[in-house]
């Protein structure tokens, strides 16, 4: 079973374990109850393997499951929603 995206509210980020304790992360801040996605990071050595896409999918699934809406300030997350309109219902603006 592949690792799941989890939320680390203390660090204000969503996390996807990759290997040996390495994480892909999507950083956010909360603004008026909405999750503002500001930056996505995947370590360079894991680039091009679809990890950011898995992180984005898991992030939007968690937001949907918890009834929260996202504001997209991160270019990757914005691109992801354009490419995957099935997550448009999770976006507030």
List the helices and strands and how they pair.
Layout (H helix, E strand, L loop, with lengths): L5 E3 L4 E7 L2 E10 L2 E8 L9 H15 L4 E3 L2 H9 L10
Parallel strand pairs: 4-5
Antiparallel strand pairs: 1-2, 2-3, 3-4
Bulk shape: globular
Q: How many helix segments?
A: 2
Q: What is the architecture at the second tier of CATH?
A: 3-Layer(aba) Sandwich
Biggest pleated-sheet summary: 5 strands, mixed
**Termini, distance in Å?**
33 Å
CATH hierarchy, class: Alpha Beta
CATH topology, anyone? Aminopeptidase
Overall radius of gyration: 12 Å
Please mark out the parts with pLDDT under 50 across 5 or more consecutive residues, or reply none: none
Helical content band = 25-40%
Instruction: Spell out the CATH superfamily.
Output: Gcn5-related N-acetyltransferase (GNAT)
Descriptive notes:
It is a single chain. The protein is α+β, with helices and mostly antiparallel strands and 93 residues long. The protein has a single domain (6-90), classed as Gcn5-related N-acetyltransferase (GNAT) (Aminopeptidase, 3-Layer(aba) Sandwich). The protein is built from 2 helices and 5 strands. The protein has helices at 51-65, 75-83; strands at residues 6-8, 13-19, 22-31, 34-41, 70-72. It has a 5-stranded mixed β-sheet with strand order 1-2-3-4-5. Helix 1 links the parallel strand 4 (34-41) and strand 5 (70-72). The longest helix is centred in the middle third of the chain and has 15 residues, at 51-65. The N and C termini lie far apart (33 Å).
């Amino acid at each position: 079973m592949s690792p799941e995206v989890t939320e680390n509210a203390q660090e204000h980020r969503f996390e996807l374990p990759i290997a040996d304790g390495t994480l892909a992360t999507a950083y956010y801040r909360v603004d008026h109850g909405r999750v503002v996605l500001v930056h996505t990071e995947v370590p360079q050595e894991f680039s091009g393997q679809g990890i950011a896409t898995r992180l984005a999918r898991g992030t939007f699934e968690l937001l949907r499951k918890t009834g929260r809406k996202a504001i997209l300030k991160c270019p990757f997350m914005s691109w992801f929603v354009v490419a995957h309109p099935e997550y448009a219902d999770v976006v507030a603006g």
